[in-house]
Amino acid sequence: MTNSETKATLSFSDGSPALEMPIYKGSIGPDVIDIRKLYGSTGMFTYDPGFMSTAACNSSITYIDGDKGELLYRGYPIEQLAVNGGDFLETCYLLLNGELPNADQKKEFVATVTNHTMVHEQMQFFFRGFRRDAHPMSVLVGTVGALASFYHDSLDINDPHHREVSAIRLIAKMPTLVAMAYKYSIGQPFVYPRNDLSYSANFMHMMFSTPCEPYKTNEVLVRALDRILILHADHEQNASTSTVRLAGSSGANPFACIAAGIACLWGPAHGGANEAALSMLEEIGSVDNIPNFIAQVKDKNSGVKLMGFGHRVYKNYDPRAKLMRETCYEVLQELGLQDDPLFKLAMALEKIALEDEYFVSRKLYPNVDFYSGIVQRALGIPTALFTGIFALARTVGWIAQWKEMISDPEQKIGRPRQLFVGAAKRDVPPIDKR
Ligand code: SDX
């Protein structure tokens, strides 16, 4: 972060003294105006609901250029990482450490994660308290938060070793917890992790194997899942990451912070959109119904949105959506489902929307969630678990951002202010006068 030559001057039409504010430059992307002195100097706050024009921190982890449709993890384009950049654990190492691992570093990192994939045997009893049809995200919020009760040895957030140990535990145990949530929902026994399988193959094993017969993973499907995890690993200061940072700024332990991130990701406007997008496609049903559905979307009173479309930052095609569509095609081909009606419906809907003025004028393009439901369904993942997979993948991004926030000398407890529009001070009338 460097000081720009240019300063920002805030002047007031009523002749109040102008305020000069420094402008900082990052390595790439928009500059920022440092407004930290604004309230002290003017007694006024900025007003920015939804933080549309607010940089809450400086970060070196993930960069998005919404106009170009560009996404970089530590400077590496997502297209390279997802297609020829190795596997998800390499991306995890990159996000956590800032550089891709060499062969020895990767071997050590994989071994460390692999040897932390089991959860405490007592964790299973938390699951038994949930209804079998509980939404997996409610189970994950509960069980991830509960992990803190087993690791009092690594909750000192000011100890770098504790932060490292917690990061590994969370990355390693999320697949186990997500698979346990699935097994519990279908009444099958929990499947222990296997240390002889890769991260994604192990997850498929814990999800789909049973004690009754050997389970053989399909390498094409494992690779597809691994790519899905890479695409979802991090995404700058999105709602759930900002939630994790805000929770962490109070000194809350990492398990509590990740549980808060999971809770935020659950929302249909955020991580819940993949589940909502697939339900939308199933509701549309056929290509013939697309014009009627699009008409509903354009009718503001309908409250209907084209789920999996639009993005706060991307005003161009979400690069992850392109890669997700390719992965979708590969998986459907592998499974002999290339004529899958929902995939064809999604591609038809995308084509129509991208030619429609309503979406073009609002720069609404497919985002990561538009195709992810179709490919996850083809992988055998139940719809209700789609956002759980998103949380599994995003855990590394949340943890990397949380670690960066903790080590940032500028970080303080997050405490936004408000524009108060309620009742000014008044006296309480006795009840017979109300
Ligand atoms: C994720 O932030 C991240 O990085 C998130 C994420 C990540 O990796 O962490 O990328 C993951 O959350 C992807 C987004 C998943 N959500 C959805 O697909 C749900 C559908 N999308 C919308 O809800 C919406 O596009 C948002 C929430 C994603 C973004 O909303 P914004 O930036 O607040 O934009 P907006 O609501 O102000 O929309 C601008 C206009 C409005 O119309 P007008 O008032 O100008 O007439 O576009 C319209 C909106 O009504 N609009 C849509 C639309 N999204 C926006 N209209 C129809 N369908 C949509 N999907």
Give an account of the 3D structure:
Helices cover 49% and strands 6% of the residues. It has helices at residues 38-42, 78-84, 88-97, 103-114, 124-128, 136-147, 160-186, 199-208, 219-231, 239-249, 254-265, 273-284, 290-298, 319-334, 341-354, 357-361, 369-378, 386-407, and strands at 2-10, 19-25, 32-33, 62-65, 70-73, 76-77. The strands form two sheets. A three-stranded antiparallel β-sheet has the order 1-2-3. The chain has a three-stranded antiparallel β-sheet with strand order 4-5-6. Helix 6 (136-147) runs antiparallel to helix 11 and helix 11 crosses helix 18. The chain starts with a strand and ends in a 27-residue tail after the last helix. Bound molecules: s-citryldethia Coenzyme A. S-citryldethia Coenzyme A (SDX) is lined by residues 235, 238, 269-270, 273, 297, 305-313, 362, 364, 367-369.
Provide a compact summary of the structure.
By secondary structure, this protein is mainly alpha-helical.
Secondary structure layout plus pairing:
Layout: E1 2-10, E2 19-25, E3 32-33, H1 38-42, E4 62-65, E5 70-73, E6 76-77, H2 78-84, H3 88-97, H4 103-114, H5 124-128, H6 136-147, H7 160-186, H8 199-208, H9 219-231, H10 239-249, H11 254-265, H12 273-284, H13 290-298, H14 319-334, H15 341-354, H16 357-361, H17 369-378, H18 386-407
Antiparallel strand pairs: 1-2, 2-3, 4-5, 5-6
Helix pairs in contact: 2-9, 3-18, 6-7, 6-11, 7-8, 7-18, 8-9, 9-14, 9-18, 10-11, 10-18, 11-18, 12-17, 14-17
